[in-house]
Input
Amino acid sequence: MTNPIEIHKHRHLKYLRTEILPTAFCSGCGCGTILNIFVNVIDEMGIDPNDIIAVTGIGCSSWIPSPYLAVDTLHTTHGRAIAFATGVKVMKPEKHVVVIAGDGDLSGIGGNHLIHAARRNIDLKVFLVNNFIYGMTGGQVSPTTPKETKTTTTPYGNSEQPFKITELVAAAGANYAARWTTYHIFKLKKAMKESIEKKGFSFIEIISQCPTSYGRKIGQKEGIDQLNHFKANSIDIKNKEKYSEEDLENKIVVGKFVERNRREFVDGLREINKKLAVSN
Ligand SMILES: Cc1ncc(C[n+]2csc(CCOP(=O)(O)OP(=O)(O)O)c2C)c(N)n1
Ligand code: SF4
Output
């Protein structure tokens, strides 16, 4: 009899570039978990990989779609994934255009593209992998690094206020914005499905572990230490009111922050084109 685990394994291999496996991610990194969840999502939703265009920037998280996903991918420059993805979506609105990249990439150098894509409400699915650091380059401070944290570029502690990215994207106008962690695999999977089904700018901030460039600097040496931290410190957005603003500083608020049905950007362009065609 065929081993069911083998069947399971083979069903998902068609979504991956098997010739370059295993991945280059460090042991215990959250990037592998996110890749795994995304592959399960497209498989369970029955999405044809030919209908996905994955766009990414530069960083460890940017390696989740490229080179590992066996879909059309655009591996762009640092911070510019959303700008490229915007062009792709305008020209190929029938495709699922998915962006997966890091907090440094999407909220640092690419922060402006992020807020304006949310404001335009363009139908991109953006999965921002927040490991609180510039992982690939060895642990420099990022816009999401918590206050007081010692990094290679803040050796005496980070004096800056970190971004609350999900709140920022929700306020900028996205149709869907949620935050989950790599500990919440089933909830994250459900959120990815919801975000793909939702037309408009859909955003999930995925809090993820980087034991190599972040965890070991904050006393959480192994990936599992960071997962335990996520588990112990996450609170559901539904219970947020029970906490003071000060208490919330050290918590990870998870859940769906916004879901609405504002007009999508490419649809808006089409409406204008139609009006122009009638008047000419
Ligand atoms: C224009 C430009 N500036 C800087 C870099 C160097 N660089 C490469 S990856 C990276 C940051 C990666 O951090 P993040 O986007 O958070 O991804 P992670 O590696 O943590 O997943 C930087 C600064 C670059 N490649 N291009
Ligand atoms: S440096 Fe960090 S983010 Fe990059 S692969 Fe290693 S653990 Fe993952």
Remarks:
- The chain has one domain: 4-279.
- The pocket of iron/sulfur cluster (ligand 2) is lined by residues 25-26, 29, 31, 60, 131, 135-136, 210-213 (CB under 6 Å).
